[in-house]
Specification:
With 424 residues, this protein is α+β, with helices and mostly antiparallel strands. The chain folds into 2 domains: 232 residues, Beta Barrel (Elongation Factor Tu (Ef-tu), domain 3), CATH 2.40.30.170; 76 residues, Helix Hairpins (Orthogonal Bundle), CATH 1.10.287. The protein has 5 helices and 21 strands. The chain has a 6-stranded antiparallel β-barrel with strand order 2-9-12-11-10-13. A 5-stranded mixed β-barrel has the order 1-20-15-17-21. Strand 11 and strand 12 form a beta hairpin. Helix 2 runs antiparallel to helix 3.
Amino acid sequence: MQGKWKIFWLGLLVLGVWTLYQLFGSQPQRREGPGQMRAPVRCAVALAQDVPHFLNGLGTVQASSDVLVKSRVSGQLMKLHFREGEHVKAGDLLAEIDPRPFQAALDEAKGRLAADEAQLANARRDLARYASLVKGDFVERQKYDTQKALVAQFEGACAADRAACENARLQLEYSRITAPASGIAGLRKVDCGNQISASDSQGLVRICEVSPCDVLFTLPETAVPKIAQAFAQSRERQITVQAWDREQKTLLATGYLLSLDNEIDKSTGTVRLKARFANDDKRLYPNQFVNARLCVDVLKGAITVPSSAVQIGSRGSYVYVLSLDQDQARRPERPGRSEAPSGRGMPPGKGAPSGKGSPPDKDAPSGKVSVRLVTVGLETARFAVISDGLKSGEQVIVDGVDRLRDGALVKVAGTMETPKAEPF
């Protein structure tokens, strides 16, 4: 029996506490009139600026010229005339092969040529004598024709000897290996003293031209119309391409679009593009992974707001526009109240930017917010482009929107600058 009375008095106590809370606990939130509490918010001013429209793709750096230097003759490698990692010019001497066998072959070919030329000269003299004798019938016509054929035979032999001499001269020149293109010499593949041949697949050294260099990257096939339109509008200016590092934190180089592939890869649904970079500072290196950003358009005078200002509702995208009280709209902004953007905008619905739970400054600007339906165009991680529904200079709420309704009264606890568009 005593247990039932304890449960009864405990229930009565809970009911009393709940009644007192309903009567007094929520009264401060229900105040109306001049003393009504205003929600603290942070706002930003819509900014008109030129915004580049970038398409992002994954790319790989390639040398504009990549040549594997190989020997064109067989022989013993006698000397190397380059240092690994240095820049060489086209025509510079890189290596020498023992030239003595090739010099001997050239001398032999010259000797055969001299012998055949001497026989040709003698045969021509005999032919001239036979020509004068055959007119007086002192020599048979057949002997004259035979001598004439002999002259033609020696002429052919001399022509073959001259070709052999030229070939031997080329072999001798090929014993001096020169750079076929300009670029940076890589690590050597063979050392002096080794026997090399034209059939060696590894070659002597690889020469890569990295100034300028190319970046081969891919974009989805859905981007082809935008790229084609950019090509059509690029008669006066080149299409800008940026190369960023793997983490997309550092801009490595800026170049221009060089070419677009003539087909789409049906296995991946992407199209390949090639961009050219001057790369004078050598920040791009062959086979380096980069993030390529292609600027297909520039939106002139676009209205931009921080991304956190745009909300999504049942009727589409909207923003809260702040209208300051009339006496405060003419008041100059107090110094020290603005907050510089940190690049990490607080997501919507997370409360006031600072001092959460503390009363806002009673001298802070205040006003009323209204819901404004907007059309969002280009959107990035930092800001959104408003195509319709907002004008430059209007203030929008970027933080504290979870407590707002259309017509709500607010106090500005801080301001945020609309991020600037990236250079292009």
